[in-house]
């Protein structure tokens, strides 16, 4: 899937704390589109929630972005906006940050995916990964 996205010129985007964004930027995902908009946003304690919401909405609308990575603690601040995103693309993946471990019970995308399977299907994947 990543190869297909690379062939089509699709991007990943990141909304996260400074460490998360720097890590992904060092990994080579940073881009600025023709309108001079980056595919990442560094969020700190002084970033207004409205700015995070606006950035997420911009990333969802961009046709060059296929995956949005967002620190889970930041996703919690805009949960109502993330829950409203029901399209398959771009995919939204909640990731941990250095200071906030991942909690599967808070991940709305995982909860939606869990509802698509019956318990027998989950045992195939290791149901303790979906708790």
UniProtKB/TrEMBL annotation:
Record key words, sorted: Hydrogen ion transport, Ion transport, Transport
InterPro entries noted in UniProt: ATPase_V1-cplx_f_g_su, ATPase_V1-cplx_fsu_euk, ATPase_V1_fsu_sf
GO molecular function: proton-transporting ATPase activity, rotational mechanism
Pfam families: ATP-synt_F
GO cellular component: proton-transporting V-type ATPase, V1 domain
Task of the protein: Subunit of the V1 complex of vacuolar(H+)-ATPase (V-ATPase), a multisubunit enzyme composed of a peripheral complex (V1) that hydrolyzes ATP and a membrane integral complex (V0) that translocates protons. V-ATPase is responsible for acidifying and maintaining the pH of intracellular compartments and in some cell types, is targeted to the plasma membrane, where it is responsible for acidifying the extracellular environment.
Oligomeric form and interacting partners: V-ATPase is a heteromultimeric enzyme made up of two complexes: the ATP-hydrolytic V1 complex and the proton translocation V0 complex. The V1 complex consists of three catalytic AB heterodimers that form a heterohexamer, three peripheral stalks each consisting of EG heterodimers, one central rotor including subunits D and F, and the regulatory subunits C and H. The proton translocation complex V0 consists of the proton transport subunit a, a ring of proteolipid subunits c9c'', rotary subunit d, subunits e and f, and the accessory subunits VhaAC45 and ATP6AP2.
Family statement: Belongs to the V-ATPase F subunit family.
PANTHER family xref list: V-TYPE PROTON ATPASE SUBUNIT F, VACUOLAR ATP SYNTHASE SUBUNIT F
NCBIfam families in UniProt: V_ATP_synt_F
Protein name per the record: V-type proton ATPase subunit F
Organism name: Plutella xylostella
């Amino acid at each position: 899937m990543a190869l297909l996205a690379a062939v089509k010129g699709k991007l990943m985007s990141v909304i996260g704390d400074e460490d998360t964004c720097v890590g992904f930027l060092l990994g080579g995902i940073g881009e600025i589109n023709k309108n001079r908009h980056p595919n990442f946003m560094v969020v700190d304690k002084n970033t207004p929630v409205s700015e995070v919401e606006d950035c997420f909405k911009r990333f969802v609308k961009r046709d060059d972005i296929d995956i949005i990575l967002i620190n889970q603690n930041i996703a919690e601040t805009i949960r109502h906006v993330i829950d409203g995103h029901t399209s398959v693309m771009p995919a939204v993946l909640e990731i941990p940050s250095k200071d906030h471990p991942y909690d599967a019970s808070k991940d709305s995308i995982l909860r939606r995916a869990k509802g698509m399977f019956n318990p027998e299907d989950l045992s195939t994947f290791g149901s303790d990964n979906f708790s």
